[in-house]
Design goal:
247 residues, globular, 3-stranded antiparallel sheet, Aminopeptidase, 8-stranded mixed sheet, 30% strand, alpha+beta
Length: 247
């Protein structure tokens, strides 16, 4: 990853999750949101170089002005070791390690030879219902539907069976990257390759819009999703953790 790629991915991420407000200070993007999506409400550095320690207090002040708790999304990399120690001394705890993966869309589109998913420019009720089904947190699901629905230019993929949407996903486009979000499969329909069909169709849509590079973010413990993404050609670029205070 070049420094330009890293910054582009972070900016594209925030375009995709479309926080309610966004500020910027030197070296940092500061999104503000009342939903459950961590990326939409955590301060993130735009470069993988050692941050200025003074940024901690400035970021805390910016979030306090909006009556929001400060949360940081910090790469697990040596340049951030000192800043993470500062966070620990300030009462923050790191959790929820999440991996950023990248791939070529021309490879990803070959992950499935099944029927393509339907692609739409707006999410319909069936697409949203997948996020509210059995096995998903309904509050988090509703928040993710709102978050992804308000981003400009996002495409929504659906696999339907007997009139019911059983798998869903979305792709956003910006800063030279297509990004994959909201990959969900109905609990009773897992293990049948439906997510692969969604992913392949989103990659084909990216290519049709002129985007060859793709990225996604997946929690480190989600081994089932990681297995699919590896088969699709995605490779890890970096891992980050969320840092926040309890309570």
């Amino acid at each position: 990853m070049t420094p330009a790629d890293i910054e582009a991915i972070e900016r594209a991420t925030l375009c995709a999750v479309s926080p309610e407000a966004l500020e910027e200070i030197p070296g940092w993007l500061l999104p503000f949101d009342s939903g459950t999506v961590g990326r939409a409400k955590s301060a993130v550095p735009v470069a993988h170089t050692a941050p200025d320690p003074a940024a901690l207090r400035e970021i805390e002040a910016r979030y306090a002005m909006r009556d929001r708790p400060a949360v940081f999304r910090i790469p697990l990399a040596a340049p951030f070791d000192a800043f993470c120690e500062l966070l620990k001394r300030s009462g923050y705890t790191g959790a929820k390690p999440t991996q950023v993966h990248t791939a070529a869309a021309s490879i990803v589109q070959r992950v499935s030879n099944g029927p393509p998913a339907e692609i739409a420019s707006q999410p319909d009720e069936g697409w949203a219902r997948v996020f509210l089904g059995e096995g998903f947190d309904p509050v988090d699901g509703a928040s993710r539907v709102r978050t992804l629905s308000r981003a400009q230019g996002t495409l929504f993929a659906s696999v339907r069976e007997d009139g019911r949407t059983v798998a869903a996903g979305a792709a956003a486009f910006g800063h030279g990257w297509a990004s994959v979000h909201g990959m969900r499969t109905a609990q009773a329909c897992r293990g049948r390759g439906l997510a692969g069909r969604v992913l392949a169709s989103l990659a084909a849509a990216a290519l049709s819009k002129g985007y060859e590079r793709m990225f996604l973010q997946v929690e480190a413990h989600n081994t089932a999703a990681q297995s699919l993404y590896r088969r699709a050609g995605f490779e890890p670029a970096w891992t980050y953790a969320y840092w926040g205070k309890a309570g």
